[in-house]
């Protein structure tokens, strides 16, 4: 259950949605200090919560201004028996919307993983450092070839919000490319339609997006994941629904603070 939860919520949903390989517009959707809180439900249970935070201060990586962005996830209620407390982060170039550095701090039961990745987009290289259980000493390093302008799991999620969806019509396909856990992912994202939805933070006209996912043992159906993104200047991910082999998983916005456009 623990592994299935992790893969469905973090990898198969956030990652498949965020790593668009085209050209983004200038960021007008989010700003420093923004916070988004999501509730994750498994069947009738509130299984977890996820929080996405853009640091209030601009950070510098190799003299390049970046947004420091953190995603926190933890299990709730009865699901605490499967203890998950994760922190995923990225330093996202404020101008080019590409990552320069990313990290993962994973706590799941007794399992621990601490990893840092440095992206060199000119050399098309990702330098990965793996740390020990206490996140003190480097225990392994390796370099991987990556495509130009590749995204990581967190940066891609925010890159998605810079896309001008108005230029797409129902049935159009957006191609996704990203680097995660030593692998390059190429996925297609289909723009299905626009529709109104009710959420805890209000009623929104939204874009409905569906990623094409290869057949696997996690999801059921031909298009098992559906995403709703607000059709406004903030382009907030409002709702995500996933059909799993056993049950279904829903993720919905509960709170939004310090939005760029009010």
Secondary structure elements and pairings:
Layout: H1 2-18, E1 35-42, E2 45-61, E3 64-75, E4 84-93, E5 99-108, E6 111-120, E7 125-131, E8 138-145, H2 155-159, E9 173-180, E10 183-199, E11 202-212, E12 225-230, E13 237-243, E14 248-257
Antiparallel strand pairs: 1-2, 1-14, 2-3, 3-4, 4-5, 5-6, 6-7, 7-8, 9-10, 10-11, 11-12, 12-13, 13-14
Written description of the protein model:
- This protein has 262 residues and is mainly β.
- It has a 14-stranded antiparallel β-sheet, covered by helices on one side.
- Strand 5 and strand 6 form a beta hairpin.
- The N and C termini lie far apart (39 Å).
Outline:
This protein is mainly beta.
Question: Any key phrases for this structure?
Answer:
single chain; 262 residues; mainly beta; 14-stranded antiparallel β-sheet; 2 helices; disordered N terminus
Ranges where pLDDT stays below 50 over 5 or more residues in a row are 1-12, 77-81
Q: Compute the average pLDDT.
A: 84
- Placed side by side, the strands forming the largest sheet appear as 8-7-6-5-4-3-2-1-14-13-12-11-10-9
Order of helices and strands: HEEEEEEEEHEEEEEE
Determine the fraction of residues in helical runs and give it as a percent range. under 10%
Strand content: over 45%
- List how many beta strands DSSP finds: 14
* Main sheet: strands, sense, barrel: 14 strands, antiparallel
Radius of gyration from the alpha-carbon trace, in angstroms: 18 Å
What distance separates the N and C termini? 39 Å
Structural class: mainly beta
Which overall shape is indicated by the principal axes computed on the Cα atoms? globular
**SS summary, helix count:** 2
């Amino acid at each position: 259950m623990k592994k299935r939860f992790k893969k469905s919520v973090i990898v198969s949903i956030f990652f498949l949605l965020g790593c668009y390989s085209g050209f983004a517009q200038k960021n007008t959707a989010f700003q420093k200090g923004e916070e988004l809180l999501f509730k994750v439900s498994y069947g009738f249970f509130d299984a977890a919560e996820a929080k996405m935070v853009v640091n209030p201060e601009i950070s510098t990586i190799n003299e390049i201004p970046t947004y420091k962005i953190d995603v926190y996830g933890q299990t709730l209620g009865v699901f605490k028996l499967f203890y998950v407390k994760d922190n995923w982060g990225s330093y996202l170039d404020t101008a080019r919307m590409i990552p320069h550095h990313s990290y993962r701090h994973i706590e799941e039961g007794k399992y621990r993983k601490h990893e840092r990745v440095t992206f060199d987009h000119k050399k098309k290289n990702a330098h990965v450092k793996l740390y020990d259980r206490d996140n003190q000493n480097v225990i392994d390093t390796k370099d991987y070839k990556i495509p130009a302008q590749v995204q990581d799991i967190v940066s891609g999620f925010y890159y998605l919000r810079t896309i001008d969806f108005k230029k797409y019509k129902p049935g159009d396909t957006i191609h996704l490319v990203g680097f995660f856990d030593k692998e390059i992912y190429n996925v297609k994202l289909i723009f299905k339609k626009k529709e109104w939805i009710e959420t805890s933070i209000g009623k929104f006209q939204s874009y409905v997006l569906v990623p094409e996912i290869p057949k696997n043992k996690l999801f059921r159906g031909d298009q098992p994941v559906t995403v709703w993104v607000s059709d406004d200047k903030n382009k907030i991910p409002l709702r995500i629904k996933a059909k799993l082999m056993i049950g279904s998983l829903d993720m919905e916005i509960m709170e939004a603070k310090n939005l760029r456009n009010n």
